[in-house]
Design goal:
Layout: H1 3-7, E1 11-14, E2 17-22, E3 27-28, E4 31-32, H2 34-48, E5 53-61, E6 68-79, E7 84-92, E8 95-105, E9 131-132, E10 146-150, E11 167-174, H3 182-188, E12 207-214, E13 223-228, E14 232-233, E15 236-244, E16 250-259
Antiparallel strand pairs: 1-2, 2-6, 3-4, 5-8, 5-12, 6-7, 7-8, 9-10, 10-11, 11-13, 12-16, 13-15, 14-15, 15-16
Helix pairs in contact: 2-3
Length: 262
């Protein structure tokens, strides 16, 4: 199994109850990435469902998750012929860290999308023209697990010259041998730096609520991420992410509300 597969695995210990060990490699300074946590919750939701894929996840992040033992509790709410819904909670040291309402269904990989006109695939420079970070042998954290190539036009904030436009674009893949799947998409939608960095925001910007939708099963290869936002006001900002696969299909969408970095 891949590092990501192992890091998101859950072990059933009772009806609707799972144990796991949260992997610090998918965090930053001991604060674990929200997309990584959603992948874990999605695996547990699918395990109790008659359906195969987490098609809609609405997650509220209440406390920071740390590396180490944790528990997932799944409470089914509805089971239907085409969809099932469960409340899925991540618990650590007796505290509820994340609550997610997850709807599962089964998508057909052969279904082709229907657009009015050509698919609106946003532009992204070729890989060789993008900026990327190569971790050092002693580096730790999520940057060691993700291979991301950033559109230089959206990375001015790194040099102290934010563009003034809340947008960041990048190519994405896992560094370990794990081709894109529905759980990797949960990680992908929350892997970009906050788009508000291009508005002058600095520091850790915690996600408060994030909803993502699975739109298609991804093809092997690189994923293209397109992050944008509309408003920064009173310390709150929004962020939307689209994920496109190597076949030019929109495979995931997300929207979140987050707090300004501090």
């Amino acid at each position: 199994m891949s590092r990501f597969g192992d890091a998101t695995a859950v072990r059933r210990v009772g009806e609707g109850r799972y144990e796991l060990v949260l992997d610090g490699a998918y965090g930053f300074a001991d604060a674990l990435n929200g997309g990584y946590l959603m992948a874990i919750l999605g695996r547990a939701a699918v395990d109790v469902s008659p359906h195969t894929h987490p098609v809609s996840t609405a997650a509220t992040f209440q406390h920071v998750a740390r590396p180490g033992p944790a528990e997932v509790i799944v409470e089914p709410r509805k089971v239907g012929r085409t969809a099932a819904t469960s409340l899925v909670t991540l618990v650590q040291d007796g505290r509820r860290l994340v609550d997610a309402l997850i709807t599962t269904g089964t998508l057909d990989a052969a279904v082709e999308p229907e657009w009015s006109g050509a698919p609106p695939v946003p532009p992204l420079p070729p890989l060789e023209e993008c900026a990327h970070y190569e971790p050092e042998p002693d580096d730790e954290g999520i940057a060691t697990q993700l291979d991301m190539r950033f559109d230089r036009a959206t990375m001015g904030w790194l040099d102290g010259h934010p563009s003034g436009r809340p947008e960041i674009r990048a190519w994405f893949r896992l560094r370990d041998p794990h081709e894109p799947d529905v759980f990797a998409l949960a990680l992908a939608v929350d892997s970009l730096p906050p788009v508000a960095f291009n508005l002058g925001v600095k520091g850790w910007s915690p996600t408060v609520e994030l909803t993502w939708h699975l739109r298609a099963l991804p093809a092997p290869g690189w994923l293209a991420l397109h992050g944008s936002g509309r408003l920064l006001s009173g310390g709150w900002f929004d962020e939307e992410v689209e994920v496109w696969d190597s076949a030019g299909r929109l495979v995931a969408q997300s929207r979140q509300i987050a707090r300004e970095g501090r």
